[in-house]
Amino acid sequence: MSDLIRLENLTVTYERHPAVHHVSGGFAPGSLTAIAGPNGAGKSTLLKAIIGELRPAEGRIDRGALMRNDFGYLPQAADINRRFPISVADTVMLGAWKNAGAFGHFSREDAARAREALGIVGLCGFENRHIGSLSAGQFQRVLFARLLLQDARVILLDEPFTAIDQRTTRDLLELVLRWNKEGRTVIAVLHDFEQVRAHFPETLLIARELVGWGRTQDIMSSANLVKARAMAERWDDESEACLPEGDEHEPAAGDHARREPVQ
Ligand code: ADP
Ligand code: MG
Description:
- The chain has helices at residues 43-50, 88-93, 108-120, 136-150, 166-181, 193-199, 216-219, 222-233, and strands spanning 5-14, 17-27, 32-36, 58-62, 71-74, 154-158, 185-189, 202-207, 209-215.
- The protein is an alpha/beta fold.
- The chain has a domain at 1-66 and 201-263: Rossmann fold (3-Layer(aba) Sandwich), CATH 3.40.50.
- The longest helix has 16 residues, at 166-181.
- Bound molecules: adenosine-5'-diphosphate (ADP) and magnesium ion (MG).
- This is Zinc/manganese transport system ATP-binding protein.
């Protein structure tokens, strides 16, 4: 079967410093893939490129017929501002934005579905709580409820269980596995290698460049993990992307990675 998402020689840079370098490979439809690698390996950058938040400096991402709405994305906790004055119910309903009318009004059905989703993640009765008042685990449950409402074909999770209590991790991992059983393609950045080996059949191991991508039992070998660590130790944050000739334009001052929407 052909891949749902294909990366072809993908390089993503920040001010010309490559965070993801020459990565090629594909995610099969309905696959369940862990992304693993050292800190600063380009894991978050790769997810942002896949959803179209960051544009390739080189190479391309083929998303076939997938549209923006087909992607559900859970950012790394550090990237989320929880001081924003918004209730649990509204946070969840934002997952239904694609169903909202032209003026962004939520329907009664959206509210009912949000309540139902909160029930599934174990947060009945939390609708009117301010998100700033929740524990890290409770907030992660809210974000999973939002993903439930979004009902996306492809779900990308960036370190969904980092700094989350064990019970919440167990409950939310179960939800991830259920999403995959329903036929959704799931891609998750994970730190816990035991969890990866136990539940994720495919692994993409990255240290800015690809270390390996395939069956978890083959990829998560000690030789590959040592290689990833050695590659991380060699990083030179000042090195520039090897852009093809003729693409040597000077970036504007303060130019961050170029952003583009998914077509
Ligand atoms: P990981 O998620 O694997 O820890 P990231 O994708 O967050 O790695 O980062 C990869 C590299 O890109 C790191 O060197 C990081 O410092 C750099 N980086 C990440 N985000 C930005 C940004 N917004 N601006 C400049 N550099 C960034
Ligand atoms: Mg990250």
